[in-house]
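Quick one, T. Sequence first:
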Amino acid sequence: MKDNNYPSQLLKDAVEAIGSLPGVGSRSALRLALHLLKQPKENIHHFAKSIDRLAEEVRYCRVCSMLSDGDECAICADASRDHSVVCVVESVRDVMSIEATGQYHGVYHVLGGIISPINGVAPSDLTIRQLVERIRKGAAANDEEVPISLEDTTVVRIKEVILALSGDVEGETTSFYIFRQLKALGLSDLKVTTLARGLGFGDDLEYADTLTLGRSIMARQPFKG
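Structure tokens:
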């Protein structure tokens, strides 16, 4: 739609804002904007307030980098979870996909992406360092010669790290990199595993069906570095 066809600059601005979302074309954006105008004002205000609060108030968990309303996400704050098992994933969507299976009861670590030289994503751009430090501190907390504050709730000895990344080249590269970093810690009792490959090569976890993903988690295998 041409700019001079818009009856209102405000409508045009709204269409452009909505159209900036992934998968939303200009026609769909216009349709959504006009739909909003037909709604009661309180509905529109509630919608706008929710988006504003999303931008201003949502945080990242200080332990695992999952989205959170506070310093710690609900999963890390849940004492009933097995905090000795950490599932390493690429994104928040992956956490949501795994949680939907109901088959995993450990905790997570969200990398925020995968290593991708072609896209300019280096290990330092991800939360790999934080993951390694989390495991190192947990091991040190169980060593009487290394004093660590008992008030630090992030200090838990990790017994297993599950590398739940995609099976494409970039996902495998990231998994191998993390595996080498963990091996360098010299923790003989740390187990590193990966999902059983019921998923297709290169499949993203968020697109895997719940049953297949659940089985892949339960049948996870030692990571062969």
